[in-house]
Design brief:
The complex is a heterodimer of chains A (319) and B (258).
Chain A (H helix, E strand, L loop, with lengths): L1 H25 L4 H26 L7 H18 L4 H23 L4 H20 L19 H19 L2 H11 L1 H6 L4 H27 L6 H4 L1 H14 L4 H17 L4 H18 L12 H17 L1
Helix pairs in contact in A: 2-6, 2-9, 2-11, 2-12, 3-4, 3-5, 3-9, 4-9, 7-9, 11-12
Chain B lengths: L6 E10 L2 E11 L4 E5 L6 H8 L7 E6 L2 E2 L5 H7 L1 E3 L12 H7 L9 H5 L3 H20 L15 H13 L5 E5 L7 H18 L2 E5 L3 H7 L2 E6 L2 E6 L1 H5 L2 H12 L1
Parallel strand pairs in B: 3-8, 3-9, 6-7, 7-8
Antiparallel strand pairs in B: 1-2, 1-4, 4-5, 9-10
Helix pairs in contact in B: 3-6, 5-6
Classes of the chains: A mainly alpha (319), B alpha/beta (258).
The complex binds adenosine-5'-triphosphate (ATP) and magnesium ion (MG).
The site of adenosine-5'-triphosphate has 12 residues of chain B, from strand 2 and helix 1.
Chain lengths: 319, 258
């Protein structure tokens, strides 16, 4: 049963990839469209990795773009200056971001709620200001001439890898310990869970994946600017909004929200003036009607969907 | 050979600012006793539990368990030594299922590594199956086997208290601390609880120390009692002698009249 559903999911994922390839070959999807799909994958990695920290472990980080920035710049430096292979650069970007996550995780032990949020926000800005003043990565001019290594296929694979790893993590004893810390730190401690360790672990793993997303991001844009929009607090808030909209503690929610909120702004590009009106209104509506997010901590699953379809059919037969 | 004490508390003091919540308390517990910690409201009973489990800092004095010093040890390490507890204001993981509440408590005995869990190795699957089986066993002990998949916060009060006991048992404790386990239970549930605690002690051969205001439960169940009043230990002994102890009667009556 379990094996079968994994197999079905694998086949669906493969088919989706093939369909995109086919449509691109046929000229139905323009390169611009495929670009947006790559960006969707990058955002899925960012949101799911933030979910591990904010959703599953209950910490409140709003500096996720800081980890993204580290991965983006470190990997770009490696491929541009050292001509390093891209995969190696991605891993280095992830590891460096992970180390930064470890460093941020440590104050997280002392700070809670709003205070932690402000500390992580500060961390993100510190990273940005450091980059702004580092001439080796272009300083305030930005970092240009980054090779276009990020393909849709690679971004897609990395997104799947991230989702699988984080899902397997949260459904293991490690993930249960994180949930326990989120639910009740005192009870968790009294049951032998070292809450400090798991907060730091969540920050480290989350930061690692954000770093890999950063590597994909810089080799997708080919140009990094140390602006709040790209690697600063605006970006952090963007990721946070996707997370909250999808539902804290729901991986499938994160995926759906990341994809939707990447595509919607692109669709609305034609109505540039209205974009900043429609987008917030959408958010407000969702927050009023589903304050815990679209999926509210639940997961979409194959069996859930088949049951829903069966239920609908049974209902249809009745009437 | 006479059994040596398992838990030794020596001159325990816990101070909150100017308030001495626990003052110079000494007591010891022999293995497999059913003991009670009683006293009027605010006497410092919960604070003793918190000190024993590392949840509040000990101002002075020593706590040792099986000859290991536990004074001011981190709570998660104390759990490792075999002391498990429940809370006066139930602290279940309310949004998680009953089964997950219990499985979390098996944390310290988990062997598989992070990589095992990420790659879903055979070892991971085998151990997860064991953990689930163990959790179901513990649920059956408290007669809640059919509630495994319920969300913990949705259960009635009495059942939540039993889930909390089952969760504590997942630690394989040697000493079980119960903070007002009968609070909010009706007389029938209290009677079942009494039998349950006795059964747990006999079957699992653990020591139980419980805080309780229900005197009928305490007198019927406990073999040894410790009475706290304003942070002081005012009496120790079997239920009979405590009932006839003048200072105890005075402390309780004084509490009533105040
Ligand atoms: N964390 C704390 N900070 C400050 N004072 C505290 C703290 N915890 C307990 N106290 C105080 O210590 C005293 C003893 O409290 P404790 O909770 O141990 O009493 P108790 O015997 O468990 O009472 P009850 O029967 O009402 O549960 C009380 O006066 C309480 O207000
Ligand atoms: Mg109390």
């Amino acid at each position: 049963m379990n094996k079968l559903s994994s197999l079905i999911k694998g086949i669906i994922l493969l088919l989706a990839y093939l369909v995109v390839q086919l449509l691109e070959r046929q000229g139905v999807l323009l390169p611009y469209h495929v670009q947006i799909l790559s960006l969707c994958c990058i955002n899925v990695i960012l949101v799911v990795s933030l979910n591990l920290i904010n959703g599953f472990t209950g910490q409140f980080s709003i500096g996720h773009a800081g980890f993204l920035a580290i991965g983006a710049y470190a990997s770009a430096y490696l491929t541009v200056v050292w001509q390093a292979p891209f995969l190696f650069a991605i891993i280095c970007g992830g590891v460096l971001a992970g180390i930064a996550g470890l460093a941020v995780g440590l104050p997280a032990l002392r700070l809670r709620g709003d205070y932690l949020a402000i500390a992580t926000l500060g961390f993100g800005e510190i990273i940005r200001v450091i980059i702004l003043n580092t001439d080796a990565v272009g300083g305030a001019r930005g970092f240009s001439g980054i090779p276009k290594y990020t393909t849709f296929g690679l971004a897609y694979l990395m997104a799947i890898f991230t989702v699988v790893v984080i899902r397997n993590f949260v459904t293991s004893d490690y993930g249960r310990a994180c949930l326990a810390v989120r639910e009740d730190e005192i009870a968790a401690e009294s049951l032998g869970v070292n809450s400090t360790y798991f907060k730091v672990l969540a920050f480290t793993i989350g930061a690692f994946f954000a770093g890999t997303a950063g590597a994909l991001f810089s080799h997708y844009l080919q140009y990094m600017a140390p602006t709040p929009n790209q690697i600063g607090f605006v970006k952090s808030i963007d990721i946070l909004i996707m997370l909250v909209l999808g539902g804290l503690g729901s991986i499938t929610g994160s995926i759906v929200a990341a994809i939707t909120l990447t595509i919607i702004p692109e669709l609305l590009r034609g109505f540039a003036e209205y974009r900043m009106i429609i987008y917030p209104i959408l958010l407000i509506i969702v927050m009023i009607y589903r304050p815990a997010g679209l999926l509210a901590g639940n997961e979409l699953s194959l069996s859930g969907i088949t049951q829903f379809v069966k239920g609908a059919r049974a209902h249809g037969n009745h009437t | 050979m006479a059994t040596t004490p398992e838990l030794m508390v020596n001159n325990l003091c816990v101070q909150f600012g100017g308030l001495k919540a626990v003052d110079q308390v000494c007591f010891s517990l022999k293995p497999q006793t059913l003991a009670g910690l009683i006293g009027p409201n605010g006497a410092g009973k919960t604070t003793v539990f918190n000190a024993l489990t590392g949840l509040c800092p000990v101002t002075s004095g020593q706590i040792s368990f099986n000859e290991k010093q536990l004074t001011n040890e981190a709570p998660h390490n104390i759990a490792r030594y075999g002391i498990a507890r429940t809370f006066q204001n139930i602290r279940l993981f309310r949004n998680l299922t009953v089964l997950d509440n219990l499985r979390i408590a098996y944390h310290q005995n988990r062997q598989y590594s992070l990589l095992c869990s990420v790659f879903r190795s055979a070892r991971f699957k085998r151990e997860e199956a064991q953990i689930t089986a163990k959790a179901k066993e513990a649920l059956a002990l408290v007669d809640l086997a059919d509630k495994a998949d319920h969300i913990a916060g949705s259960l009635p009060y009495g059942e939540q208290r039993r889930v909390e006991i089952a969760r504590a048992l997942m630690l394989n404790p040697k000493l079980l601390l119960l903070d007002e386990p009968a609070a909010g239970m009706n007389p029938h549930e209290t009677q079942c609880l009494l039998e349950l605690i006795r059964k747990l002690r006999d079957d699992l051969q653990i020591t139980v120390l419980l805080i309780e205001h229900d005197m009928k439960l305490v007198m019927n169940l406990c073999e040894e009692l410790f009475v706290l009043d304003y942070g002081h230990l005012i009496a120790t002994g079997d239920p009979k002698s405590i009932q006839n102890n003048e200072r105890v009667v005075e402390a309780y009556l004084g509490g009533c009249m105040a």
